[in-house]
Amino acid sequence: MAKKKTKKSDKKSDKQLKKSGDLAAEITEKLCVAPGFELSSLDASSTPGYKGDKAEAEELLAASAAELGELQERLYANGRDGDGTSVLLVIQGMDTSGKGGIMRHVVGSVDPQGVSLTSFKAPNAEERKHPFLWRIRKALPKPGMIGVFDRSHYEDVLIARVRNLVPATTWQRRYSQINTFEKSVTDNGTRIIKVMLHIDADEQKARLMERLDRRDKWWKFNPGDIDERELWDAYQEAYQAALDKTSTDSAAWYVVPANRKWYARLAVQQILLQHLRELDQPWPDADFDVEEQKARLEAS
Amino acid sequence: MAKKKTKKSDKKSDKQLKKSGDLAAEITEKLCVAPGFELSSLDASSTPGYKGDKAEAEELLAASAAELGELQERLYANGRDGDGTSVLLVIQGMDTSGKGGIMRHVVGSVDPQGVSLTSFKAPNAEERKHPFLWRIRKALPKPGMIGVFDRSHYEDVLIARVRNLVPATTWQRRYSQINTFEKSVTDNGTRIIKVMLHIDADEQKARLMERLDRRDKWWKFNPGDIDERELWDAYQEAYQAALDKTSTDSAAWYVVPANRKWYARLAVQQILLQHLRELDQPWPDADFDVEEQKARLEAS
């Protein structure tokens, strides 16, 4: 009755996956923020841990989707009884850094049933009445799910700091509040992966100009984007402070050079893949007698 | 500055898309439930409106993704100011009818930022305290979004009817409550597309057996699935009644023969595509002076 004993993709891409296996570990290690990391020293056009070109990167991205899919399905299968592990992927970056492309090309390659994606905009009236982590807690992934945050509580130490949206004493306190919060989240079984997409100011200018040049991109442009751009250095400082203060053992930051979109997408995929491999969720055992159910089904 | 004036896929698949264009209109028309429709007369292995084979269907599915993606992006772009049109795709079907495959292969091909997917399970304690449409209203898509329901309020006239979960007078009243509700939803700018995936009992048996045969599928199996299967005829009757009573001008039902997964996926994609074409959302105009912003950007 079994129509196919193994998935089509299991065999044919073994070689590619093995290759991409080493790649995942290497990229994950190289991009992980270590003490003393300096954002200003990282070339946004570099491709740490990867020596290939764009075409090969796109092939690797496609070739890794099957393994990512199986690992995601195992995670999901283990979460079905309402307990078990989950993953939270936090994506931060300046305007035009490619967050949307990560959503489309990396997150979008995963079964949507196993993903809960939340885009955090400026807090609304109700959210502003609550502590800054209130809306974040509500969006945490359930067991078995991969939660993805497009922007996050880090905006509360980025734009809130740069724009003086709250008193300095308030945002200063938030770093340790975030660490305590994230510790409690990981203690409850959620693997947190934090990614900053790092572009440089020239690249941003080119990308904003493209939005102005193309009629089908106008809707993505907001004159306020240029106001934000004028605070570039203050934002870089705020990012550096966040990386310094909130890179912890339980919730590491990865800074991904993102001038080359194809590298950034491959890198984020490989980091996610590496964490899912480490979680190594097995297929759950049957909580019924398989032969007995086969006999029941046969008779039905 | 514009790196690419047109999308890679714009040109090369014109011919395929044109072909798939006629296909979308034809499949949509053929599968739409008309007065007098009889579920029991529809061959679940048939492929209405499509004469090709599996390989060609998979090619068409892939080739239509670019057009679907652009139409979805236009919809999304128009919803950004918090008003405008949205789409709601409701997927119903017996266990193993392929709802998950539609989520992975059709919904999964759309940018996850533009999709809100809700899987409705048996109502929890809080949901049971409210009228049956309460949890449905909460999950309706925001402007610009494609909402997808994996099961829906139709369970309240399917399992609720077959299993006598509520008195007969209660579920009998629900058909007109659903019609009133859906009318108000469409009046508020949401295009509703309702799909029933139609398999036959033999196909279900084979698919359940596959879940029992494969260790990596055990987690999807529940002994209760066989109990439900034993009520097959009652479910078919309940589906027929729902189709009879809730196929309206504002919210049509499509019954998709689903013994062949590749046909069902192509058909659901083409129906969604056809509706997005009919909505025909333009790229929004700029609400700023493009040349002025270019000058500001250049100077920044």
From TrEMBL, chains A, B:
One of its GO terms (molecular function) is polyphosphate kinase activity. The keyword Kinase applies. Residues 1-20 are annotated as: Disordered. Residues 53-278 form the Polyphosphate kinase-2-related domain. Keywords: Kinase, Transferase. Residues 11-20 have a biased composition (Basic and acidic residues). One of its GO terms (biological process) is polyphosphate metabolic process. Residues 1-10 have a biased composition (Basic residues). Signal peptide: none annotated. NCBIfam families: PPK2_rel_1. This is PPK2 family polyphosphate:nucleotide phosphotransferase.
